[in-house]
Design goal:
Among the domains are: 209 residues, Orthogonal Bundle (Penicillin binding protein transpeptidase fold), CATH 1.10.3810.10; 83 residues, no CATH class. Helix content is 33%, strand content 30%. The strands form 3 sheets. It has a 21-stranded mixed sheet that branches. α7 packs across α14 and α9 packs across α11.
Length: 722
């Protein structure tokens, strides 16, 4: 089929040609005028920029000379930037900058060329002030003005564009020195001897601290396509950051870090950034993380990051790779109308040994070398709306598929099934070795422990011990809510299984690594039935701390009451269960005559009622043996007498300890409570008394705090229905 030809009259063609020609002539004339006036325009623009920098940031910028060296290229010399009342921030001897003309028509400044010779950037910190404070001042001002208009998606888009626009197509940098001076006590220098971008290929050489190390940042950068693939590594050694290590009290090093930006664009109402970040042989050592070096041989995350109007999120399409193990994280932080935290982790069914091998080296001490077969899958879900913290959601499930342990590593998790030696620690020091077995006269089989103590402790510490598999999700969920509301860690979600594992198998270092290993060992023991519930409880009863250097129910029942564990009354059982959270102040719960202090009565009544409702003890209206609990005669001499005058207002501050009237002036109170060697002379006795009063003051404050904690705990129990 042929379309009919449309004939345009020649006069219209001529008119169009004249119009286009006229426009072209006007553009040429305007361009010629602009070209002839460009030096003057440059001068005005620079003056405006210098004035704005001074007004908005307090920066004094000086430029020795500036002029065009091409159509869109500006050459400048002797540049300096000095913040007001601060040290010089930067100086540059010679610099040429070129911009792209087409984006400039739309108000976007994109660099096409950067050449720099001999420059210096110096960041100086004196006391708490730095010569970068002007940035924070401006950010604070901007955030105040634009708080109501903040859109995270637009903000992320604009920031990324600003970064990409400043990456030129061609770059040559020689001898650019970046240095940090921290209160004149430490210095850090990075000298970029050369850095080039040629047709997208980036190569650089950075000399650290006068050849202490040589770093390279190499790769491919294509800012126009929003793509880059850049690697950061050292020459012949690891990248180490000693300055940062000193500041953070940590060690951090790695072989290579690789960053890849694949795409960045809007997806619906959110700005999406796709990329990957990888690291080789990352070494971390920090006392909060672990007590030893943690090494991540090979890790990578293929990430999709979303920025919406009021939230930032790591999308669930993201994948973390740790050797052959993979999992999919989801993180979301919502800012308004109130803050919401969301965390999800999903690991598809995969080889269990691959998961174990994927864990960083040095992370787990006891499980090192463990061999397993079968598969596992994992799911975690956490949701916290800060406006209603009690509605927090938490669930964590590790599901085994034909899973079994084929070989022990460093530690045999079944060692507690037979006699073993337990070593308790206090403040990082071993106390003594305790044999958990028949050869120890204080060792008590579970069958010889009074049900009064057994039921009281389970009710107080872990009511569902015989039915759960190591964890109680509801307890953990509530601990999140309580700790968030209190703004500090005041409640844990540990079960008896977790306490047992922590004490028997793990070091006493309070680190994130130890907590993670504790959780995994509990799962291995409980889900693989390595130890029976009865044996776990029996071992727990025989190692639990119940006073200063008092361990196990056998020692405790004889120490406090002169009884065997089998003959404990209901009141004695409730008391011993009560002291488990804070065993070292147990003696301060007694009056001078050996009876319990009155503030414990509500606790006895409440816990006794719970036990009675569950059929664990007969109902009792007289406090479930509270008035019958009597400290044995031999210990009563070490108690504060009832006539002791103590100013309770001093319990929670650091005022001097008020005078205490004691019956035996020849022996300090601390000595009478815990025992000591005979004093050698009067001077040592006087010194001991002074120390004793300070220690007693601390213990009395602890008792007062314990009373308040007990009252709060009772209120929470009542609200939760027991």
């Amino acid at each position: 089929m042929h379309l009919p030809q449309i004939k345009v009259p020649k006069k219209y063609i001529k008119i169009g040609a004249w119009v286009l020609g006229g426009i072209l002539v006007i553009l040429i004339i305007a361009g010629s005028i602009a070209y002839s006036k460009r030096a003057e325009l440059l001068k005005k623009m620079m003056a405006k920029a210098i004035s704005k920098a001074d007004k908005d940031y307090g920066l004094a910028i000086k430029i020795g000379s500036a002029g065009f060296s091409g159509l869109s290229t500006v050459h400048m010399t002797n540049i300096s930037v000095v913040p007001k009342d601060r040290d010089t921030l930067s100086t540059v001897s010679d610099m040429t900058i070129g911009v792209k003309l087409f984006p400039l028509l739309f108000g976007n400044v994109k660099l096409s060329e950067v050449n720099l010779n001999s420059g210096k950037i110096t960041i100086v910190r004196r006391d708490s002030l730095t010569n970068l404070d002007f940035i924070l001042k401006r950010k604070k001002k901007d955030s105040t003005e634009n708080k109501s208009k903040l859109d995270l998606g637009d903000l992320a888009h604009n920031l990324l564009n600003q970064v990409l626009y400043k990456i030129p197509d061609d770059m040559k940098i020689r001898d650019l020195l970046l240095q940090f001076n921290d209160n004149d006590t430490s210095k850090l220098q990075f000298l970029t001897t050369t850095a080039t971008i040629d047709n997208g290929d980036l190569k650089s050489t950075i000399v650290v601290n006068n050849k202490e190390a040589i770093w390279h940042v190499n790769g491919v950068v294509k800012p126009g396509k929003k793509q880059m693939d850049v690697s950061f590594f050292a020459e012949g050694k690891k990248v180490e950051l000693p300055y940062l290590n000193r500041k953070l009290n940590a060690k951090l090093s790695f072989d290579t870090i690789r960053t890849e930006l694949k795409d960045a664009d809007y997806s619906g109402d959110a700005f999406r950034i796709k990329g990957s970040w990888a690291v080789k042989n990352l070494l971390i050592n920090h006392p909060k993380i672990a007590s030893n070096d943690i090494i991540v041989p090979d890790a990578r995350i293929d990430a999709e990051v979303l920025f919406g109007k009021n939230y930032a999120a790591l999308d669930s399409n993201s994948t973390v790779h740790l050797k052959n193990a993979t999992f999919h994280p989801f993180l979301k932080y919502t800012l308004s109308p109130h803050k919401i935290y969301e965390v999800k982790v999903h690991a598809d069914e995969q080889e269990a040994q691959g998961i174990l091998n994927g864990f960083p080296e040095g992370l787990f001490e006891s499980l090192e070398g463990l061999k397993v077969s079968g598969k596992v899958k994992y799911d975690l879900n956490f949701y916290l709306d800060t406006s209603i913290p009690d509605s927090v959601r938490f669930n964590s499930t590790l599901t085994p598929v034909n899973f079994r342990i084929t070989g022990w590593g460093k530690t045999n998790l079944q060692k507690i099934n037979s006699t073993f030696v337990y070593t308790p620690y206090e403040y990082g020091k071993p106390m003594r070795d305790i044999t958990i077995g028949p050869s120890n006269s204080n060792y008590t089989p579970l069958s010889e422990v009074s049900s009064n103590f057994k039921n009281a402790l389970l009710t107080a510490e872990d009511p569902s011990f015989f039915t759960h598999k190591g964890f109680v999700m509801e307890s953990i969920r509530k601990s999140f809510a309580v700790n968030f509301k209190e703004k500090k860690f005041v409640r844990g979600g540990s079960t008896i299984s977790m306490q047992l594992v922590k004490n028997v198998f793990l070091s006493r270092n309070k680190t994130l690594a130890r907590k993670a290993e504790e959780i995994l060992i509990v799962w291995l023991i409980e889900n693989n039935h390595l130890v029976s519930k009865q044996r776990m409880l029996e071992v727990y009863f025989n190692i639990i701390e119940m006073g200063k250097n008092i361990y196990g129910i056998g020692e405790a029942s004889r120490y406090y009451f002169g009884k065997t564990p089998a003959s404990l009354s209901i009141g004695e059982g409730i008391f011993l269960a009560n002291i488990v959270p804070r065993p070292k102040i147990a003696l301060f719960k007694f009056r001078g005559d050996g009876g319990l202090k009155d503030y414990l009565y509500p606790y006895f009544k409440y816990m006794g009622n719970i036990m009675a409702r569950r059929g664990l003890t007969p109902s009792d209206t007289s406090g479930y043996g509270f008035y019958n609990v009597r400290l044995r005669e031999g210990l009563r001499q070490y108690l504060l007498p009832d006539s002791t005058k103590v100013d309770t207002t001093a319990y929670d501050n650091d005022d001097p300890m008020p005078a205490i009237e004691t019956h035996d002036e020849s022996k300090s109170l601390f000595d009478r409570i815990f025992g000591s060697k005979k004093d050698k002379d009067t001077t040592s006795r006087s010194s001991s008394k002074t120390d004793t009063l300070q220690k007693t003051k601390k213990q009395l404050r602890q008792e007062r705090r314990e009373q308040r904690r007990l009252e709060k705990e009772l209120e929470k129990l009542k609200k939760n229905g027991g």
